[in-house]
Amino acid sequence: MENTANNSNGALLDKALGQLAEDMENRELGAIIWNLATAGFHYLPELSVPGKNGETETIRVTGLRLADGKIFAIKEGLEDADISNFYTPEIDVPPVVVTLTPSMARETLGNPEGKQGYYTGGTTEEWLAIADCYFEALNEA
User: Fold this and answer.
1) Quick check: 99 and 83 in contact, CB under 8 A?
2) pTM, whole model, 2 decimals?
3) What would the DSSP string read from start to end of the chain?
4) Which residues make Cβ contacts (< 8 Å) with residue 66, sequence separation at least 6?
5) Distances 133 to 32, 46, 73 between C-alpha atoms, Å
6) How far apart are CA 59 and CA 71, in angstroms?
7) pLDDT digits over 40-49, tens only?
8) What would the pLDDT profile of 67-92 be if each residue is shown by its tens digit?
């Protein structure tokens, strides 16, 4: 017997990620990066991803990258996406959120496909929390 609950969850997740990608495209965003220490989100954006030795690891998500219509979660601590790269210390106020156009994201972050620190997996619940953080971050931008 086919498990329709899992299939409907997968379809729901695909639809939600498609809508998130469409929203980023409509806003001409190639990436959005947030500072987890200062953003004050209602939910902590986390993903369960494959870790070492086949174990699952939970990572914190510090932003989203849109490339070729596909959404990637950005792992906290990824050097290229560190928020400190986007302001001048002792001159600028550290931003809570940084948004990059598609061309700026390509130039700064490169192609995320198969690159360490970028993830597409996760559960519907995890991605709903990440989407919530995305919309909260847009209010901060």
Assistant:
1) no
2) 0.89
3) ---HHHHHHHHHHHHHHHHHHHHHHHTT-SEEEE-HHHH--SS--EEEEE-GGG-EEEEEEEEEEEETTEEEEEETT-GGG-GGGGS-TTTSPPPSEEEE-HHHHHHHH---TT-TTEE----HHHHHHHHHHHHHHHHH-
4) 21, 24, 25, 29, 30, 31, 72, 102, 105
5) 11, 10, 12
6) 16
7) 888 889 999 8
8) 999 999 999 999 999 999 999 989 99
- Cβ–Cβ under 8 Å, residues 55 and 124: no
Instruction: Quickly tell me which residue has 């500072």 as its tokens.
Output: 35
State in Å, rounded, how far the first CA of the chain is from the last one: 48
